[in-house]
Amino acid sequence: MGSTQFGNFGNFCRDSTLPICNIFTNSLARGGQGFGSCQLTGIPLANGQHLRNLGSILLCGLAIIISILLLWRSERKKAAVGRREMQLFLIGYIIIEICEIFTVGGFPLSTNVRLGFTAVHLGAITATLWVLLLNGVVGYQLMDDGTPLSLGLILLSAIVLFIGTGYITLDTALSWTHHFDPSLIYPNQNIGLYVMYQLAPLVFLFLFFLLEANLVLRVLGERKPMLYLIAAVILFAIGQIFEYVISIYICTGTSGKINGALFETLFTLLSVVMLWVFWSSITEDDWPMPVTGGAYT
Question: What single-letter DSSP state applies at residue 181?
């Protein structure tokens, strides 16, 4: 699995396909020799190029279509606390999946273009999980949901995280300040990206679960929605296990044709769908939640 030394990405990149691996000099995306393990080759193309992770590319396309349908369903819902905030989360997820096509999917691209997609991808992951956490806060109706103030605060804070994560990614990859140059070579230690890309999203997810569990069990006094929330957590965890633990064995067993990234994409998609089902189930007309005026729902 991953390295035991805080901030190291070398062993993560050796055993799995993560978008962040594109920025390091030993990655195939930058003309390196790889990370010393099973290399994902995918489908051979002309001029020695390869289309890697075709399955992930197709699933990303499916995820985008399903997310657009969920956006539409959210808009048509009559009673929906946090409608706009949930739609912001879905838009963030769509951006992630678009980027994943080019960062994990492995389309033949120029190095700088792939690095640009990687920066957007990492920034979008951090920002989107932050938006999800704030969706958990919105349910408590501390302020009117869907108002310019609510949406503005969420967007502004998410943009700050997006820019910060994206900047560190590009500064590392392109050596703008040379501050992160040591992380370009093995063991690829980058504390900033480790915190912003690996740890912060997990903290956001954990806090979101606690907020929603408290809302459902103590405020609403219901149990059924927890089944959807727990299912989302389990599906997400399965995807991470495929990515970080099982991926290397799938890659070796298929001679580099596929790896765990395909299954990570699938189970993350299923997790997002279950999150939407959970949100939909707690915004029904008969929940005893106070709804104040002025919200654009």
Answer: G
Return the H-helix or E-strand segment holding 244: none
Output the CA torsion 35→37→43→49 (10° steps).
30
- Each residue of 80-122: pLDDT tens digit? 788 899 999 999 999 999 999 999 987 778 999 999 999 999 9
pLDDT digits (tens, 9 = 90+) for 133-154: 999 998 888 877 888 988 999 9
- Residue 43 one-letter amino acid: I
CB atoms within 10 A of CB 44: 9
Give the model confidence (pLDDT) of 151-201 as tens digits.
999 999 999 999 999 999 999 999 999 999 999 999 999 999 999 999 999
Q: Are 150 and 144 in contact (CB under 8 A)?
A: yes
Place of tokens 């690095």: 115
Mapped onto helix, strand or coil, the DSSP state of residue 67 is helix
Tell how far CA 247 is from the center of its chain: 18
Residues near 282 by Cβ (< 8 Å), separated by ≥ 6?
Answer: 81, 139, 212, 215, 216, 220, 222, 225
Residue 189: phi and psi, rounded to 5, are -85, 120
Task: Collapse the DSSP code of 285 into the 3-class scheme (helix H, G, I; strand E, B; otherwise coil) and give the result.
Answer: coil
Please count the other Cβ atoms lying within 10 Å of the Cβ belonging to residue 217: 13
